[in-house]
Amino acid sequence: MKGADVNSPRETLAQQLAEAVAAALKADLEHQSRVLLVVSGGSTPAAFLRALSTLPLDWTHVDVTLADERWVEESDPASNARLVRETLRQNHAAGARFVGLKTPDGTPEEGVAEAAERITPLAWPASAVVLGMGEDGHTASLFADSPELERALATSEPLVAVRTPGLEPRITLSADYLHRARRHFLHITGEHKRAVLAHAMVGDDVRELPIRTFLACPLAVYWAP
């Protein structure tokens, strides 16, 4: 990786997470024809996604979708779809099928039905969901100050359009669909996020720190300074 220290703790972590996720996909491919991987956006996953792309796997039988998406064009640097296409869908993983959440509609509220139609035929439960976490304790687009948080936590629908003060509109997988995965990974870096996670572990108010909704299920935490 140009300009990256491949021996840094974060690069090592990314490689270890990639190997664990690839092993999960490979294990499920032994007894089903297609498997599903759900990944997150933001800056943290880039190294992991690049590392995953280099691992040999029957990628033509792997579907990839997103935990959430900003309602921006794929050409926008903030697009999670753009991140996946530029980092994961290369090398061995070029043959994976990516199913994005953004539609041509002007708002996520208008596009949520079409996006749901795209993802419901995929191989649920997902073999793996790789979550991130913000310094405010959000994961996917489950934000504490989002008016749609209650619905996203309670609905059995696959997707929810969400609005959060100060942020662009988004679409997110519901907690129910994220919970359905066979394996959950949390990929975080930095001392502050470690402290936020430690705080989350000693409380149970999901509406304060939405990451708590995944602490009750087996969650493999991958952290580096």
UniProtKB/TrEMBL annotation:
Hydrolase: is it a keyword of this entry? yes
EC number from the UniProt entry:
3.1.1.31
Swiss-Prot/TrEMBL catalytic activity: 6-phospho-D-glucono-1,5-lactone + H2O = 6-phospho-D-gluconate + H(+)
Query: Matching Gene3D superfamilies, A to Z?
Result: 3.40.50.1360
Q: What class of enzyme is it?
A: hydrolase
The entry sums up its family as follows: Belongs to the glucosamine/galactosamine-6-phosphate isomerase family. 6-phosphogluconolactonase subfamily.
Q: What is this protein called?
A: 6-phosphogluconolactonase
Q: Could you tell me which species this protein originates from?
A: Halomonas cibimaris
Task: Provide the taxonomic classification.
Answer: Bacteria, Pseudomonadati, Pseudomonadota, Gammaproteobacteria, Oceanospirillales
Q: Gene symbol?
A: pgl
